[in-house]
Fold this protein.
Amino acid sequence: MRCFSPQEVEMIGAQHYLADEAVWQNFLTSTEHKISLLAFWADENYATMLLLEYDLYFLLSVKISLRRYLAPSIRYPSALWGEVMARDLYGVEAMNSLNDTLSFGNISFDQGSWKKIWALSSSPLEAEGKLLSRPLRNEEGRYFVPFSQIGGVGLCDIRAHLVKGRMREVSLSLSPAHRGIIVQLLGKTKAEALLLIEKISGAGFVAHPLAFLRACEAAEGVFCDAQERDRRLLFLELERIDLHLYDLGQMALHAKKDFLSSYCAFMREKLADIFEKYSFPRRLSGLFSEKRACNLEAFMQDILVFMKKHLPEVSALYQFFFDNFKGIGVLSTRSALLYGIGGAVGRASGRLSDMRKYDRGMRLDALRAVGEYHGCVFSRGQQRLAEIKDSLSLIEMIMAYFAYPDEGEVLLGQGEGLGFAEGARGDIWYWVHLKEGRIEKIFIRDPSLPLLNGLKEVLEGIKPEKLAFILSSFGFSPAGGAL
Amino acid sequence: MRGKKMISEKGAFLSAFFSLKKWQEEEKKQQQFLRKSPYKLTHLYIFDGGGCDGCMMALNTLKLGIYGLKEKGFHFVETPKEAQWLLVIGQITGYRLGQLQQDWEAMGRGRALLAVGNCAINGGVFEETYAALNGVEKMSKSFYRLAGCPPSPRELCHGFSALEAEISARLASA
């Protein structure tokens, strides 16, 4: 790495470095590197950044002193959410943080609704837990967008000033969706935690537990056999196909293209029927905690036959109905790169990052999706269709040579592990610290987190009536981010 | 070339139309529901209490015309004042609890509370925390349940129709 020399940091885990405050500050203020931030989190003891330098990802931590640390948001605006969470869950302050008054409000994340203050710290305080109501406008005159108008994406607090019928100074917050998942995972074994992680997000019933399992395996220094490896890759692709169809259907619904939205729903339900026929859950939830035997070859064959018949139809419908939506809701390449936005959304904006390239056993020839990188609504749908096609190629390649042996690197388990999975909506990362087989620390990075900052820019200046449509094109789901 | 493209587009449209039609007929045969008066719609309001979004995705799919929910006598509305049934999804976060009470009080007479999905009923696999309850069971004894994790659109259709008879009978006897 060019950002610091090995002498300046201490290696505390595989790809995990501990810096002192001077090195941390130097890293954040240096102009000599172009390392991007994937995620940031902090607890009472350490502040940690997950960074990506070209193809190399690593963790950089600094010890927290007197409940304070230098805010990464001075360089990386996307770190702001992590700073807010750390402040309210652990009571640690980020110094010189970006002004978060407009983004998340200058009051706490929960606005007094939680029953504990600093809930995850070593000394949480009991609180009453206020009942909140949501007026149409707050004291500053900022308009709260009713949840019914955000197109059923989930719970996301969107506020803006309405100036001449357009939204200005838009802010987004995942506060309403926070459920306290992390506190439920701490102290659990891998098997116990898996039961919860499999249900964390409807946009990642496969991707979330897969990233978690990979992190645990890295922590334990084990990895799965080739059969299990390929089985996981197959189900990840099935989930990708399912979610892309759902997102296309929602885009069509909000654009009032009912034929296309109904067709996408029909395809999803037919896929779910095929999953059920082979004794899998309709939405592939609970896949890893319960082992199921099935005729994998026949299963994949049914999927391929069905999708190859109907995919050209949905593509034709999409081209016909969405041709007029070019240039709308543009997420610029600059924003996608700056905030580390991944998935089909990031790739449609020109950030060509696909973490599947690093998966063991990945058949790289299948990953060819080349769309238009304009970053608009049309491009995002186009990218999803191209990726569905890629997923089918990948399934064919995997089944052609199922469970081929690979020579993966055997790592010594150090009790700490980083795992990722390229979900349909972007890369999901898990960092776990195990102690005697139980989770001592855990962090989850969902693709909805980096999208928060990108969405602020995209929604600036739009009319509220267009909000649901534009949000639906992003496949935004707060559940995974607001843990 | 342009002619060929038009023919192939038309072919795709026709094929898609017939696939959809066939599936709709199959769904109708699978779903047993009681015929309701077409002039009396039950208005449904979705309250998202904070969950994995799985139930929300199922309800979003149900909103599509393909399931013929209106023909079955149900209609989604945007405000609780217009609704007869309040569909709660998710665990119910502390942030949303006050709004849930407000929305319930805004509904008129003959209202019913439905917990859709396991999390809304009793938290599902999740526990109560500083930030979220364990579903509607924690705060009410009289509510209706539509279990599932998540329930499919088909199960929701079945469930609404089955509950409609039960709720109507209860209201008639009240």
